[in-house]
Every structure is written in C-alpha cells, then in structure tokens.
Amino acid sequence: MITFSKYRKILLITAFTVTSIFLLTQCMQNKKEKTAQAPLVRFEAFAGSETCAGCHRKIYETHIHTAHYLTTRPAVQEFIKGSFDKGKNAYAYDSTFVIVMEKRDSGFYQVGYFHGAERIAKRFDIVVGSGSKGQTFITRFGNRLYQLPVSYFTAANSWANSPQFPRHPVVFNRGITSRCLECHSTFVTKFATNRDAQEEFNFNQIIYGVDCEKCHGPAAKHVEFQSQNPTETKAKYIINPKNFSRQQMLDLCALCHGGRLRKTKPSFQFQPGDTLSNFFDIDSSTVLPENIDVHGNQFGLLRASKCFRMSGMTCVSCHNPHENERGKIALFSERCMNCHNGQQAHMCKLTDSIGYAISKNCIDCHMPLQASHSITELLPGKQEPTAAMIRSHYIAIYPNESKNFSSFNNPANSKKTN
Ligand code: HEC
Ligand code: HEC
Ligand code: HEC
Ligand code: HEC
Ligand code: HEC
Ligand code: HEC
Ligand code: HEC
Asked: Rounded mean pLDDT of 224-244?
C-alpha cells in the first residue's frame, strides 16, 4: 500500500526503469555477438509448489499459510477478507457516489452507483496482500492490470479508499506495473510492448505469491530428475540457501525487504544466490534509522542495529521461512536469547527488576510497533488517513515503549499470577 510520495517515486522508478530497460536491451543487443547470454528465467523452468507437495509435504502444508504464499492470489472468496454482506459491503465517497462490493455469477465486483444508478462494474481478479495489514485488488482489462478504488483495511475490518486514490473523481484506471508483482509474486511473463505503453502480461503465466521457487530458484528440472530417480536421496538442480554466504542470504530477502531500490535490470531475472547490487542501485552508506520508513525496509533498519553489526545475524536467525509465526512473541524472544543468554555478557539490564516476565517478550520494548508512512488508508467518515502499525527492525533501547510495557506488566502483578 502506497502513499502519494511512494506513488510519485514509483512513477519515477517506472520512468527510470523503462529507460534503463531500453538502454539495457540496447547494450544486450550490442553484446549478443560477443558473449553468450546468461539463460533468462522463463515460465517453463518453474514447476509450481503443488508439485513440491508430493515429496516435501510438511513444508508445503505449513507454507501455504504464510503471508508470502498468500500475498497474491486469484480473487476467489476464500482469499478476499472484506465482507460482501448487505450493510457491510459499501464504501460511500459522498452522498451521491457509492461503491458496492457485490457477488455476481461471474465473480466479485466493485460496482459504482451514482444517485442509485449503476454506472460501472469492475471485477476483482487478483488479491494483493495476505491481509495482515490490508488488501488491495486488481482487475484486468485485456492484458493490462488496474488497481480497484476500494481496498480492505484490516485494523478497522473495513473497506477503505485505496491508498493515495483521490476521492474525486473516483478512478478505475490506475495501472499496476510489474514493480508490484516483482515483490508480491514469484513470476509473470510480460508481453513486449512499446516502451511508453502500459505493460501487458500473460495471465496464463503468473505464479502467484512468494512461493517456493522464489527462494529456491525455478525447479522443474529438480522435480523431473528426482521423479525419474526416486531412489536418489541427494538433491540435484535445486538451490538451498542454507549454503549461502551471509551476504547472499541477506540479498535474497532484501530483494523485497530492502525498501525502495532503483531497478537497473528486470528483477524477475534475479535468482537466489545472485548479488543484489547487480540488479539494483544500492546505496550502502549508513542511513539513520529515523530516516527509514518502517514499511518494507526491514533490511535497512536491521542493518543499523547493534545486534546486526556485532554478530553474523541474517533474517533467518529469527524467521523460519516456511511457517507462519505471526504473533508468536514468546517464540521470537527465545530466538533473541540464543545470543542474549546468561552465559554471554550482554543480557538485558532490566532482567533483575522485571524477572521472569522479561523472557516472554523482548519484542515490545526493543522492536516496538511504529506507524507506517506508506501503508495508510482513508476510512469511511475520516478526513485523515489512518496508518498501519509495523514492527520496527531497528533493534534498540526505546525508553518510552519500555515504560509503557513496564506499567502494563508490573512485576507485582506477574508474581501474583505465577
Ligand atoms: C519427486 C520428489 C521431489 C519433488 C517433486 C521435489 N523434490 Fe525437492 N528434494 C527431493 C529429494 C529426494 C531431495 C533430497 C533429500 C532432501 O533433502 O529432502 C530434495 C531436496 C530439496 C531441497 C534441499 C536441497 C539441498 O541441497 O539440501 C530443496 C530446497 C528442495 N528439494 C526444493 C524443492 C522444491 C521447491 C520443489 C517443488 C518445486 C521440490 N523440491 C520438489 C525430491 C523432490
Ligand atoms: C519476492 C519478494 C520477497 C522475497 C524474496 C522475500 N519476501 Fe518476505 N515478504 C514479501 C511480501 C510482499 C510480504 C508481505 C506479505 C503480505 O502480508 O501480503 C512479505 C512478508 C514477510 C514477513 C511477514 C510475515 C507475516 O506473517 O506477516 C516476513 C517475516 C518475511 N517476509 C521474511 C522474509 C525473509 C526472511 C526472506 C528471505 C529468506 C523474505 N521474506 C524474502 C516479499 C518477499
Ligand atoms: C520492494 C518491494 C515491494 C514493492 C515494489 C511493493 N510492495 Fe507491497 N509490500 C512489500 C512488503 C515487504 C510488504 C509487507 C509489509 C511491510 O514490510 O511493510 C508489503 C505490503 C503490502 C500490502 C499489505 C499486505 C498485507 O497483508 O497487509 C499491500 C496491499 C501491498 N503491499 C500492495 C502493493 C502494491 C499495490 C504495490 C505496487 C504499487 C506494491 N505493494 C509494491 C513489498 C513491496
Ligand atoms: C522466503 C523464502 C523461502 C520460501 C518461499 C521457501 N523456502 Fe525453503 N528454504 C528457505 C531457506 C532460507 C532455507 C534454508 C534454511 C536454513 O538455513 O536452514 C530453506 C530450506 C529448504 C529445504 C531444505 C531443508 C533443510 O533442512 O536443509 C527444503 C527441502 C525447502 N526449503 C523446501 C521448500 C519448499 C517445498 C517450499 C514451498 C512449499 C519452500 N521451501 C519455500 C527459504 C524459502
Ligand atoms: C545472532 C545473535 C543475536 C540475536 C539473535 C539477537 N541479538 Fe541483540 N545483540 C547481539 C550482539 C552481539 C549485540 C551487541 C552486544 C554488545 O554490545 O556487547 C546485541 C545488542 C543488543 C541490544 C543493545 C542495543 C544497543 O543499541 O545498545 C539490544 C537491546 C538487543 N541486542 C536486543 C535484542 C533482541 C530484543 C533480540 C531479539 C528480537 C536480539 N537482540 C537478538 C546479538 C544478537
Ligand atoms: C532479531 C530477530 C529478527 C531478525 C534478525 C529479523 N526479524 Fe523480522 N521480525 C521479528 C519480530 C520479533 C517480528 C514481529 C513478529 C510478530 O509481530 O508476529 C518481525 C516481523 C517481521 C515482518 C512483519 C512486519 C510487520 O509489522 O508486519 C517482516 C516483513 C519481517 N519481520 C521481515 C524481516 C526481514 C526481511 C529480516 C532480515 C532483513 C528480518 N525480518 C530480520 C524479528 C526479527
Ligand atoms: C520492559 C521493557 C524491556 C523488556 C521486556 C526487555 N528489555 Fe532489554 N532493555 C530495556 C531497557 C529500558 C534497557 C536499557 C536499560 C539501561 O540501560 O539501564 C534494556 C537493555 C537491554 C540490553 C543492553 C544491555 C547492555 O549491557 O547495554 C540488551 C542486550 C537487552 N536489553 C536485551 C533484551 C532481551 C534479550 C530481552 C528479552 C529476553 C529484553 N531485553 C527484554 C527494556 C526491556
């Protein structure tokens, strides 16, 4: 979800990308005679995660509940969070124009009514967002994609005006670029278009969600080999990030969790293990944490933290990429204590005063929730957008949050319940 400034950035990024793709194709054409091209990542090289289920069932079954898997899905009922029930299915722009979310024979629609008369109806085709903060919806027209004007905002369990959409006029023609899909899907084939034209996509060649093959590379060859050689217990033709260097592991996650990077190559060509700076302009100077938006830049924030700088930590030190562990604060705190334990010098200074309760929740004091500057939505009846709260990855000492936490978790109270 995107604010005005982000949209402007995205426009700039798009303009920049279009230019760079143009320049790049020129370069590639010049180079073609001289060097063999690296193989491009193509749709045919993917197997799809249903095929992994046959041999990696446990991982498959937990993975389909992750925010990654769910971050883009076809728009069927089970994936749309907002309500289509009468009374809960409308968003009024003013007293004259209302958008109603309707289930019809051919799918789910956003239907615009002006003074009660239907003026426009556009179908939900793709859901973007697992819904932990919210969801926005894409409709297709021919081979193009457009964002629908009404989104869903989870904190309010309510339909809302899409981020940075004007209230007047209500627009149904805001294009969706491949940039959204590069972070929110595994792969999509693009049709060649004029460089000034809106992008066109092949809808038979979309791999929804951040799926297995985003982190393990296209795996059709692995599936073919292991199926034909069922007694072979060693894997072939597949990438296991376990063997990555720290930088490779960080680059894999920073591909989408590194904030607004400027693309220099089509990022669908990035493969796990590749170096991110070959695909993006990366500013590696240290950025002050207060200048980084908490939205989408966990890498930038983490990198500024003392924890990160003074250990070999990666994202996987705390996150299991195959499971939905959202909300399991005690489990995350255990992972802090893999490093911050009694044996090592750097234990929390409040341990003595707070006691056992401290071990259940390091997170709310040291990684507090902060308002996103870019995931904001205008709720019905509100004049100002409401911001989603995001977990800061700048791990540090936050005196105010610690005070709030301490007063809620008064050690005297926790003793009583023990
Ligand atoms: C026909 C069975 C089969 C299918 C289908 C299959 N795999 Fe595998 N895979 C294996 C075997 C066998 C191994 C080696 C033993 C192990 O590590 O479990 C393996 C290992 C792996 C590894 C670890 C590699 C390593 O070097 O340690 C990854 C990652 C992997 N598979 C991913 C996938 C993905 C992603 C899919 C779906 C696109 C998939 N596999 C589909 C059989 C299969
Ligand atoms: C192709 C882009 C992409 C890559 C690569 C990627 N992520 Fe994500 N990740 C996302 C998106 C998009 C979301 C938001 C999903 C949503 O809620 O709709 C997300 C969400 C998450 C979440 C929040 C989960 C939750 O329950 O809310 C975690 C944790 C996470 N990613 C960790 C990682 C780690 C660790 C890696 C590297 C091993 C990684 N991601 C690689 C795109 C990516
Ligand atoms: C650089 C990668 C990146 C790009 C580009 C990007 N997103 Fe995201 N998006 C994320 C990540 C990561 C999250 C998870 C929340 C966070 O970390 O702030 C997210 C969160 C979201 C969410 C909320 C998901 C949820 O479950 O709460 C929506 C909706 C969304 N993005 C839509 C879009 C749209 C539409 C575009 C294109 C205009 C876009 N994003 C472009 C990475 C990206
Ligand atoms: C967000 C990135 C991401 C996604 C999506 C993902 N994996 Fe993984 N996978 C990893 C990482 C990182 C590791 C190495 C973890 C470690 O260091 O132990 C891994 C390890 C593995 C292994 C090897 C296990 C081992 O103990 O060595 C297998 C098999 C595997 N993944 C299969 C899958 C399958 C099947 C899916 C989809 C159902 C999937 N992965 C989705 C990132 C991912
Ligand atoms: C991979 C090991 C590792 C993990 C995991 C880890 N840390 Fe750290 N952390 C460190 C190291 C090393 C330091 C620097 C210690 C020093 O200064 O002696 C540090 C420093 C800190 C500091 C002091 C920061 C400052 O600016 O003074 C805090 C607070 C902290 N960690 C909290 C956490 C919390 C909370 C978690 C879990 C969410 C966590 N750490 C997970 C290794 C780790
Ligand atoms: C020291 C532990 C630690 C490390 C390292 C870490 N995270 Fe997290 N992350 C957390 C905790 C704790 C949460 C909050 C989980 C919750 O509320 O359920 C979180 C939440 C997230 C979320 C969801 C944010 C939100 O507010 O919805 C994303 C996305 C994410 N992490 C991505 C990453 C990425 C990418 C990296 C590596 C650059 C990373 N994390 C490294 C501990 C860590
Ligand atoms: C009630 C809030 C709160 C909780 C819960 C909490 N901390 Fe702290 N922590 C603080 C504050 C405040 C400081 C700074 C204290 C000082 O400097 O006197 C601190 C300091 C630290 C330090 C720096 C110590 C040093 O030597 O400079 C580390 C490391 C740390 N905490 C880790 C953790 C870990 C790990 C957990 C979970 C097991 C945790 N904290 C739980 C509030 C908290």
From this structure: 96
